[in-house]
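Collaborator request, handled under Task 6.
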Amino acid sequence: MSRTFAVGSAMSAATSFRVGVSWLTLWSEQTPRLLDLWLKAGEESPGNAETELRDQLFKTARDAATRVNAEVVGGIDDVDKFTKR
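C-alpha cells returned to the collaborator:
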C-alpha cells in the first residue's frame, strides 16, 4: 500500500507539471492571434472581429480542456502501470 501511495504522489506531481506545461504551451501559441483579434474588436468598426475573438477564445478553452483531460488520464494510466505487480 505504501508503494501505491508513493507512486501515486510522484505521478500526481508529474501529471500536474505536464498539465501546466501543456496549458501554458497552448495559450502561448494562441496569445498572438487572440491579441490581434482583441485589437481589431476594439476598433471603430470591428465587423466580425468580436465574434471571431469569442469563437477563438472558446475554441482555445476547449482545446485546453482536452489537453488537460489527456494528461490526467495519462497520469492515471502511469500510476496503474507502475503499481501493478
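The cover message to the collaborator said: "The helical segments are 2-41, 49-83. The two ends are 12 Å apart (CA to CA). Please let us know whether this matches your experimental observations."
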